[in-house]
From TrEMBL:
One of its GO terms (biological process) is DNA replication. Residues 339-769 form the DNA topoisomerase I eukaryotic-type domain. GO terms for cellular component: chromosome; nucleolus. The active site is at Y755. Coiled coil: none annotated. SMART domains: TOPEUc. It comes from Allomyces macrogynus (strain ATCC 38327) (Allomyces javanicus var. macrogynus). Residues 32-57, 102-114, 121-138 have a biased composition (Low complexity). It is an enzyme of class 5 (isomerase). It catalyses: ATP-independent breakage of single-stranded DNA, followed by passage and rejoining. Belongs to the type IB topoisomerase family. Residues 1-179 are annotated as: Disordered. Keywords: DNA-binding, Isomerase, Topoisomerase. This is DNA topoisomerase I.
Amino acid sequence: MAPSRATSKRARVADDSSSEDEPIAPKRTRTARTAAAAPAAAAAAAASSSSAADAPAPSKPTRKRAAKKLAAASDSEDEPLAAAPPPAKRGRKAAAVKDEPSSSAASSSSTAAAPKRRGRPPSASSSPASSPAPTTARGKGKAKAKAPAASAAVKKEEAANGDGDGDGGSGSDDDADGEFKWWKQENPLGDGRTKWTTLSHNGVYFPPAYVPHGVQMKYNGKPIKLGPAAEEVATFFAGVVGTTWAENPTFVSNFFEDWTDVIKRTEPATCPIKEFAKCDFTPLVDYLAAEKEKKKAMTKADKDAAKKAKQEIDDKYGWALVDGRKEKVGNFRVEPPGLFRGRGAHPKTGKLKKRLQPEDITINISKDSPVPAAPAGHKWKDVVHENEVTWLASWTENVNGQPKYVFLSAASSWKGMSDFKKFEKARELKKHVARIRREYTAMLKDRETEKRQLATALYFIDKLALRAGNEKGEDEADTVGCCSLRYEHVTLKEGNKVVFDFLGKDSIRYYNEVVVDAQVHKNLKLFKKDHSDGDDLFDRITTTSLNKHLTSLMPGLTAKVFRTYNASFTFQQELESTPADGSVADKELAYNRANRQVAVLCNHQRAVPPTHDAQLGKLKDKIRALKYQRREAKKLMLQLDPKLKKSRKDLTEPESDLDDEWIAEYLESEKVKDKEKLQKKLEKDNAEREAEGKPLLTLKELEDAAAKRAARDPTLEQLEKKVAKLGDQIHAAKTQLVDKDENKTTALSTSKINYIDPRITAAWCRKHDVPIEKMFPRTLREKFKWAMDAEADWEF
DNA sequence: CTTCAGACTTGCCGCGATGCAA
DNA sequence: TTGCATCGCGGCAAGTCTGAAG
């Protein structure tokens, strides 16, 4: 059975978030998340879910896709519908269109609210004037190699909020503090197509060349000398030894295949390496461990030097000028070579990701900006000037042939604008959603199977926040979303119950038992009829056709907008239960709970932190200790003034959760701790006394002194205060406990970063007087600068 | 159409910085 | 002051969706 990997922190424990039911986020009982590594995945799935895994489900057994479209074309509307309606010829799309004249033609320019056109993107006036200056400044900075004057200066300017030397493009459109506030512009979203007029930057940063270490791994028990190329790849593998990657047969065989290729090319024909089983990477593993130690043991000076070097790189490559304005670059570091860590049962996992050369990289930059110099002796693959895209550099990754890009950071104007657009689009959906729901509810009974499928899929996307579910290739992990659900992923139960069990994005398991609309249940039964494992559940629709339909209902509407809308809407609703007169901790809890609702809705999971149980235990003990102290304090109060027994019920109430055994243990441990403390104090004091020539103390003396202090009777008033304080502490700790436990397997950050309109948070903080820093860490505050001014009464 | 390439968002994880108790 | 847990951030894989090409 399960190969009991210690590393399987991915296994989840049942989560009974059975707190409430409300329409949008139906109750859910999730179980385990499958492991990423293939063998573990299969095992885990088999172990945890009897239903899904026993069936030949997980790995595509007899998958017959492609049959899809043919079926739709020929056999057409033959399916007898459970209800009654006679088959009908299709092609009557008119029915779907509804009153609005579709507007699909104009829809492509997805400009949210303001259809008003403007000639230029954000600031018409600033760029021509400001761009030449910074460009030259940049050029100089580059020439100086070290300490790029320009960027450093700008940096300081930003931090100190002082005035710069004209760099940074604080043109007339910008705010007084020199920062570009695009959201205060008249038309913050520009014309939607052209992204920039001028663009300059310093290109990309390459990882250092490989330095061979010469450590010899063993083959067949004998040390073996490898050239740099083969050694490097072997060392990549050594890096995963001890993790689940190294246990994954696909990973191992892909690695070995690519490695032997390298060996064939670069090693003499005498190189004996033929079988993975005979490879012993231990020397390399040890070497890596030693290197890690070395790094950890670096002196402070070395660490500082490394930090400084890193800072210089950041200063040089970390900034770009867009229309004369300084913007932060995101991933300017070229991805280093390594073994591809494809998640889930990815057929290509473990393959060698090659080292990129400047000759692989395309640079996108203004015509009039200096092209960043490629590393000595090299040149760029290409230099282009495409101002309808936002990437600064791009290349093709060799494992999957995917394009990769260098973009600006999340805090940049471009990303901010597109976030803003996204949330405005979701808010627009709010106005249409009632109508759209009515429409698809009616369409659930349409005579055409295709329409029924469309409506049913849409029902899931809306109610369950499923992803669209594009088709995937054979050379990718087998994961699905709404449109790509297969027969085996959906099980029908009595009482209109439906059980979903499939692997979604990142091979995260989605398990959900939901009671659905009777018609939906009926439809599913119909779609499944005469089908079997491996067949598409929705065989007449694709994400494209679904989105096309959605766009006809509302311009720019796509499946993912529903996720954004439902997440933000749910969040705002859940926040309403924030206790107006609660403490900040109470409010935080309410916030996190709302956040959690959304995370559960979107199925955002995380591995249980390895120390989770221990943490909980500690917290519980802390609470008990506090309770015990409170009990003692109350006792004292009653001793001091026995009359309180009558008037103060609260003092006589027993503390829950305290048993004698625990108390004894607690007291014992406290005793030990106290003793240790005193012992330390004794040593310290005596050292002092010795120096001053005073007589030394004994432990006994100290103990007596401490006992005397403890015996001093506090006043009633002091006790009262103490009890109150303890009460607060207990409450806070309990709150923390609940929060922590509920968070065990739920990742809040993804929804916070991508799905919840930040203006809801900003408004909530204002309304409830909670500092925004409590809810948004620095990077989020930067990313959501545009949302920070939301008034307390702002509504999503 | 379908497929494919391209561009951009979403998502989980590992690691380093940071804060905190010992 | 050091060891250690937490947290925030960046890395990069994996989605969505659009538009061009076959």
